[in-house]
Design the sequence.
């Protein structure tokens, strides 16, 4: 019976498939990470600008006063400070940045696998070049 | 890499070692070819089916259970790919007959491989040092526990453990050497 050697053709197919799959995954990963990170930072920037414009942080200078004054006014001051904060914007920013961090944490194992695959694909490419 | 078992290689592929698949391709392509040829009776078609089967196996390799035999999984894919190929070609032979035939071939082939592997292991065990052979035989073939072997051979349990471990290592070396 005829003997065959399909190693190269199968590995070429595998490498092509793996390139599409791994780079596709990596593209989606970085896109989501970028969108979440950029959204988080952008909204935080707007919120911070608003805080500085309203001089909300000035309220905290109360805590540089004497103990008696702090004890008397800290609750009211904190309440006003809380009300003054652009809460929705800060919440959106927090959620987006938290999402980006969680994305990194939960996909780090998969990321390492994909990264290793990409290194292997590069190695296969180099080996193929050398044998030409 | 060549000395690793199928299951070890599959686990490595699942961890991103794409090139480990090359070892599996080299290990199985000829056996798959002869298996598929008996279903499609055409050299070119068999080659095409083997390629498709191997590629198909890679695409779903992340779902493979590494505690089970990879060869069975691979031959099942090859059988299904061969049947699909015949379906595409609108072969006039009844598909039930082909499926039955493929199933018989698969069982026959698996039995053959199993018998061959058993024979090789037995021969390798005979080549082991006497003390290791005795411990391995008592543990794996006579199903004795460490304690029972320890009593029978009048050696401490830890010695039994050590001999078993060294015996397995020696056995692996012998089998790997034979593979080369």
Sequence:
């Amino acid at each position: 019976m005829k003997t065959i050697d399909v190693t190269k053709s199968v590995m070429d197919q595998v490498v092509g498939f793996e390139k599409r799959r791994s780079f596709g995954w990596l593209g989606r990963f970085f896109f989501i990470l970028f969108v979440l990170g950029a959204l988080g930072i952008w909204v935080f920037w707007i919120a911070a600008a608003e805080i500085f414009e309203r001089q909300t942080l000035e309220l905290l200078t109360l805590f540089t006063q004497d103990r008696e004054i702090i004890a008397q006014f800290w609750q009211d001051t904190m309440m006003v400070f809380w009300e003054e904060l652009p809460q929705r914007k800060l919440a959106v920013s927090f959620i987006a940045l938290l999402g980006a961090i969680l994305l990194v944490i939960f996909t780090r194992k998969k990321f390492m696998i994909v990264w290793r695959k990409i290194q292997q694909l590069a190695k296969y490419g180099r080996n193929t070049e050398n044998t030409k | 890499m060549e000395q690793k078992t199928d299951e070890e290689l599959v686990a490595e592929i699942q961890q991103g070692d794409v090139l480990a698949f090359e070892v599996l391709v080299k290990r199985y392509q000829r056996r798959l070819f002869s298996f598929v040829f008996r279903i499609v009776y055409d050299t070119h078609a068999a080659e095409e089916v083997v390629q498709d089967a191997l590629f198909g196996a890679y695409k779903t390799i992340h779902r493979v259970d590494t505690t089970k035999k990879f060869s069975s999984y691979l031959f099942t894919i090859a059988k299904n790919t061969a049947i699909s190929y015949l379906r595409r070609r609108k072969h006039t032979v009844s598909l039930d007959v082909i499926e039955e035939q493929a199933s018989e071939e698969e069982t026959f082939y698996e039995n053959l491989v199993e018998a061959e592997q058993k024979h090789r292991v037995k021969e390798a065990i005979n080549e082991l040092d006497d003390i290791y052979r005795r411990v391995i035989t008592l543990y794996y073939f006579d199903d004795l526990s460490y304690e029972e072997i320890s009593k029978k051979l009048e050696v401490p349990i830890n010695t039994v453990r050590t001999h078993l471990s060294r015996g397995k290592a020696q056995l692996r070396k012998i089998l790997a050497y034979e593979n080369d």
